Amino acid sequence: MIYDVAIIGGGIVGLAAARALLQQKPSLRLLLLEKESALALHQSGRNSGVLHSGVYYKEGSLKAQLCVSGVRLMENFCEKHGLQMERCGKVVVATSAEEIPRLEALYQRGRANGIGEIELIGPERLAEIEPEARGIRAIHLPRVGVVSFSQIAEALASEIQKAGGEISLNTKVETLTRRSHAWVISSGERSIEARTLVNCAGLHANRMGKFSGDMPPVSSIPFRGEYYELPVTRRDLVRGLIYPVPDPALPFLGVHLTRTVDGRVLLGPNAVLAWKREGYQRSDISAKDLAQMLGDRTFWKMAGKYWKTGFTEMKRSWSKRAFLREANKLVPALVLGDLQASPAGVRAQAVAPDGSLVQDFVISQRNRALQVYNAPSPAATASLAIAQEIARKVL
């Protein structure tokens, strides 16, 4: 049997793409391949669950367009399936006068991106929304909510299978070969043929692209995001989501405080280099991944541009006190004993040939293969909108 489409990657983007393709063409013979024994175990299942509003992203960018439309689609999806979702609201807080121009620019960007419910507020209103937060001005986004992307992944998988799509777990792609009529995908002793290939492999997307004979336009560098969480007795310090004003030159949002859909309160993440594509512990090292990264000129260009930022992030990784000092800028009442270790995540960060961190989604297509080379945050929020874009291109 030859499949019409094979999707590599059982994260939220791969699952959403499979659902969108089957919705638009129900007769499609579709197979989704996932190397793990379960779906959404990596980037999709190891995040804070925030449904981002689209306030951060450059007007006209794919991130801006797909996040703003995607969040509405995701809210509707959760309501349809009865999935947990809490609109707890979010504040982006300026703690110094130097941050005010960036905060105001962020507010204007949010308006330009079509966010309806967004407000600039002063310290008195901030104290009403988040009594323990401290700042001189803030953006308030009352509709921002949190979900469980693991639950969403399960619901997507159920829809895919009901629509006739197949999901194959424990299927690690080892080689990709282009024949005149189809792609041949090898996994162990199994050989799979598909007319069209969709690469949604996340941390391994560049590797899959190279397997297919493509030349990825960006390098992919794994960054670990480390979290702490508050003990149960201190969770009332945070009512919703409290974020700092981000550095516009970086795709990371800084240490923030997030109430999750199951009631926990996370602090983080930082952003430190991971020495393994799925390196969730400091001690996790893959000789293959490390050699590939250190042998990439792009990595060294990136290191030259951002070494000061990297040093600061590493300091917060190794020093709990340094991490606390950053969090105290937003919530001064936090003390060292409040920081309890919580599971980390790893994101695949695209890096341009000149060493700069790529801010937008990167999707390319040729030889009947569509490659999703960069889909970091807010890809989970935007996944249903990204999926519509993928389906349109594939079909």
Could you give the topology of this structure?
Blueprint: E1 2-8, H1 12-24, E2 30-33, E3 50-51, H2 62-81, E4 85-86, E5 90-94, H3 100-112, E6 119-121, H4 123-129, E7 137-141, E8 145-147, H5 149-162, E9 166-168, E10 175-178, E11 183-187, E12 190-199, H6 205-211, E13 219-229, E14 241-244, E15 256-259, E16 265-268, E17 272-273, H7 287-294, H8 297-318, H9 320-328, E18 340-351, E19 362-366, E20 369-374, H10 379-394
Parallel strand pairs: 1-2, 1-12, 2-9, 5-14, 12-20
Antiparallel strand pairs: 3-8, 4-8, 5-7, 6-7, 10-11, 11-12, 13-16, 13-17, 13-18, 14-15, 15-16, 19-20
Helix pairs in contact: 1-5, 1-10, 2-10, 8-9
Average pLDDT for all residues: 96
Q: What portion of residues belong to β-strands? A: 25-35%
- Sheet of most strands: 9 strands, mixed
Low-confidence stretches: none
The string of secondary-structure elements, in order, is: EHEEHEEHEHEEHEEEEHEEEEEHHHEEEH
**What oligomeric state do the depicted chains represent?**
single chain
Shape: globular
Q: How many helices? A: 10
Radius of gyration, in Å, reads 21 Å
Structural class: alpha+beta
- Number of β-strand runs: 20
Q: What helical percentage do the residues reach?
A: 25-40%
> What distance separates the N and C termini?
20 Å
